[in-house]
């Protein structure tokens, strides 16, 4: 029987080495291809053009990514690894997009066009595409195109996965069908209007029969589902506006950099600029009332769906004589109230015990001392010290007998003043 | 001038190096193992439900007579104040000779959904204060509240001024409707009643989403990219992972406490108007007559400085001081500069006041 030479640790080590070797091979090939063609300028699409080299390298990277990331071991830092790889992927995608832009800029420059003209055109085209994509249902195209600026929607997806409310995208289904088809023999029974309006009409139809209540609950759920889909689309639209605004800011900043002769020297610098523009755009949009309203509408709509599903589930559990959420809530509420009552009684008992014990007087004295006006006492002591110093001064300076009496009178006056003040 | 000096081969080289560093970093990650948080030794002195009161082992033979109770927020975990050696506010206070206690709220579950702010403040905090008073034979102690914990401490001080010798608040929101308060802006239209009635306890993930949404591009992608060049350094990687653990370690929020906090504080800003009720008690900030030290961060994007500084307008304390820190909401606990300035500043202020 063959020996297994590797322990699990060795296997992981081996896996790490393999991925590094694969990476070196791919990147070596890509670098050679680019070096071979760098400086040759824009060439027609051929296997050895920088564009082709970059594409080969990106495809290789994509395969490497799919095969080797994230690491196959259970790590306490899995989420961190996923996030880091995701960030890396965004960086690479940006690199790929930038490469295409550079190709176009270089090409047009060789034809005599100013780089600013080319850049302006590229940016306007990008904004047009993004704006049109944002108008489409859910803005998926926008998110794919500008994956970096689609991150807020990715965050929302992660959150909503934790609070399951998955419903089929009904409006999309009806939208793709061109609206509700007329039923056989009924012509335009469903009437005119958007897919949403048609759907709303169906869901508002009165339920009939023995299962009327169940139908009504299901209709409510579907209605809330539609509201949620609409709210999601609206919010996605707003996030899309962030992307458009970020592109505008990026455009402005690039022109400013060109004018100020402070070029960017690396892809990372460009990436950081890209992020800065995104954050600035997001900050502008996020402080608007429309953002707050849309965000709240999205959360409220999601929760409404969840609320309705929960009610239906509770009803089903109750019908099977099984404990449900409502019963648990009642039990928890009672327990919490009982805990409060117990604490209150314990506190009262401690108080009763304290009052019955000799410690009460000691406690009272301690309370007085703690609460006592220490600052006032200090002031009084300081005043008395001043009086004593004055008396000593007067006694030392004067040989005349009446003086001490006058001083004593003065001291008496000072003392009664201090007494009045306290 | 063309705004880029990047050549194609340079661009590819940069990406190649990036991925090589990433691969090297993954190797380091596999070796680094779980990261420990919390550097200062402590002991449990009291426990009630999921709440635990800890006493940190003093660093000096004769600590300051009046202990300080650190009250952290319900959001996130309190080990942020004791993250690692050299980045621990607790450690700094102990080194300055303070006797330090801390309330750990734990991880609420379904059984805690009906806990109210009254339960937290007039219940858990009050009983923790009583335990410490009894241990040290004192009538009142020092309170140090952080963020939402500062708001709680402020409310407690208003309702029990006889139990608080000195109050320290750190990055604490008091006025929730100041300019630039993004959280209040976003919470304004939320149907909190529906949210709480449906979800019960509010999932920590919802709060994570909200905080990440404040700077979505920096916090979900750029910070990981910035880490890649140093990922092969085990110590730096561990430091990052500690912060990362804390950021995503968000307990669920007890439903009723969350409901009241959002409605009364964020949406209706009732605290500064004296309209917050906790049980049978009204929170009247003018009852705060003990010395107050208000520490805030000048670049705090979560709690704008004005939201904290508002405290001075509503209290009756004759001994009020502010300490401004040049930094952000998190930096005030963990940055090297903060360790140099904040714990010594707080300790000195407390020690001067008995």
Properties at a glance:
heterodimer; A: 422 residues; mainly alpha; flat; disordered N terminus; disordered C terminus; B: 354 residues; alpha/beta; 8-stranded mixed beta sheet; 12 strands; 43% helix; globular
Q: Would you write up a description of this structure?
A:
The complex is a heterodimer of chains A (422) and B (354). Chain A is mostly helical and 422 residues long. Chain A contains 15 helices and no strands. Chain A has helices at 8-37, 50-68, 78-110, 115-135, 140-145, 151-162, 170-176, 195-204, 212-260, 267-286, 289-319, 325-356, 359-371, 374-397, 402-421. Chain A is flat. Chain B has 13 helices and 12 strands. In chain B, the strands form 3 sheets. Chain B has an 8-stranded mixed β-sheet, sandwiched between helices. Chain B is an alpha/beta fold and 354 residues long. Chain B starts with 7 loop residues before the first helix and ends with a helix. Chain B is globular, with a radius of gyration of 22 Å. The model of chain B has no long low-confidence stretch (mean pLDDT 92). Chain B has helices at 8-32, 89-95, 117-136, 148-159, 182-187, 192-199, 204-212, 216-227, 234-248, 255-267, 305-309, 331-334, 336-351; strands at 42-48, 51-56, 68-71, 82-84, 87-88, 100-104, 141-146, 164-170, 277-278, 281-282, 292-297, 320-325. The longest helix of chain B is centred in the N-terminal third of the chain and has 25 residues, at 8-32. The interface between A and B is large, with 100 and 81 residues.
